[in-house]
């Protein structure tokens, strides 16, 4: 049973480049894209879905999110908007609530957030641990995440938990030893918050130890790099061949050169700068240097509690001077590159049939209509 | 038949001030609020609706929107984000498309936008004409708007149309004469784009003539004031007792003093500054001077095509340093003040039962979760 999708005023395939087709159609067979082209050339199919003149884009690939947690930090957000500084220290609040929560509480919140993302067009999401920070709590957070996505990331090295204050190296030994052993079976990736400027995060040597241990355990590498200062994170990520260096808010010329020469994607998270009232990353500098740029939400209860990739696209255009086309590519194909996936982030033949429908005549409306829920994932009968 | 609404973790009534009640309930009778209080004190009722621990706020009052138009200007938006300047000149594109559209085309777009707003928590919306700019087209735009809202505003003086280029005074004579006569039966308000800095808009004398004629025809007054420069609009609005001066992006000390001493609400439209990449109004200066501040979307196809009051709240907090409480008040009670309405914008006993439900434990999430569609208007059976 295949399905012909018609009534597509504008189709973005990302194949090749943005790959825009007007008055398009698309055939989905067994969960994959089987044919793409002009509506007039469409082949017959078993079923037909008409979108009534809307836009179709690849489902968003949100390659950076922290969705396994409990508790509410809206009061901390309010205080920060009144002038309190963000340094990552508030993560401890969420750690306490997460440790105290039952599996079902964590699972319920996680499922609700993934559903909320899907309702906003996100069809692939990476989910990190990092609010457990004990062997058992990190492992259970990853086990819960793996119920919903294959893109699970072990982030035991999110912050140094309070009980290890002043003993960061001891905590790193725990992370790289028994915690990694317990978590690796549930994770595809390992990540570390490399930020010497924060008393709560990890310096370059500690980050290297975490990444090396993760790699030895068979995990792919990702790095929280250069969020609060121009630290060693980006160059470490490139040196070790990490799939992505995330944040990239404070970069030196050497950082940009390293990214341009390497295979590491620069993942920008402008929702964080919005919600912490911080300066935005310099996306144009990266693009002009030839760096592959991804956009992601960083959805988390502390520094950025948006789940909307469309909002991140609007910020990328307004605040980072990306074009609507660049921003959409980075939110789809860019995210796929950051996860080293070739089956998502585009709608070429053979891709997963992860379609997002924009209720508008053009993908440009994703930036042109900020804050308006005009995009959702298309649910096709028989999808898997 | 009355209805008891329960399961309200947090209720904002705006009565008095923000009027927050935790673990609250509310009785709706014949479309009005009949009782408000703690859940434990709730009286019996004929029907019951349980919100499962969500937040209830007054439905948003969007006191500034341009929703009667045809055409698409997303390409102009894209060009502006790449550096083209906004001076109001692009309005002509929408005027041509609107004149060419049938009533049903205009009505379809208008209804879709009002429904989109309601789905995002807006229960009162003001709708302006201003894309017809002929006697017949302005009158028909207002007639269509009046099908959906009592808050209709005659904005024949939106820009000088191309066919009157260089003859602005002749166009003002048309606006204040036959156009006003044709439009007044369908309008509650008259408005003018007072902006000597734009070649397309109206200077102080022209604006005064439009407002005086509208007042003589029985209409209330509103002014597009001080958007692109510190012109005469704000002080003219206060002098003539206008309900609202809208934009207020460029203010002198004398403008702030005038607003503080008068009865005119300052309506801020931060979505415009977002979508035109312009500096934001100084909300704190106005609040500290004691000015009543409203927030509205300015939803329109040129300078700001958002319909989301929640997005405007998030911008107000991030960019204008309003607190989440101030921003919510301005988006509800402030909007009501800008429309001189006492029956909306609050949930005191006797108010219209215009309830917006926030899928979160606190109203703070409206700013804490930017871009996420967590708020919608509550549809109660028997509502009218």
Describe this structure in words.
Two copies of one chain form a homodimer. Helix content of chain A is 35%, strand content 22%. Chain A has helices at 74-81, 91-100, 103-118, 135-146, 168-183, 204-216, 233-239, 253-261, 270-276, 283-288, 309-320, 324-338, 365-368; strands at 2-12, 20-29, 32-38, 47-58, 60-62, 122-125, 127-128, 152-157, 189-194, 220-225, 244-247, 265-268, 293-295, 355-358, 375-377. In chain A, strand 11 (244-247), helix 8 (253-261) and strand 12 form a beta-alpha-beta unit. In chain A, helix 4 (135-146) crosses helix 5, helix 5 packs parallel to helix 6 (204-216) and helix 11 (309-320) crosses helix 12 (324-338). The model of chain A has no long low-confidence stretch (mean pLDDT 96). The A-B interface holds A 72, 74-75, 77-78, 81-82, 116, 119-120, 271, 274-275, 277, 305-308, 310-312, 314, 317-318, 321, 323-324, 360-362, 364-365, 367-373 and B 72, 74-75, 77-78, 81-82, 116, 119-120, 271, 274-275, 277, 305-308, 310-312, 314, 317-318, 321, 323-324, 360-362, 364-365, 367-373.
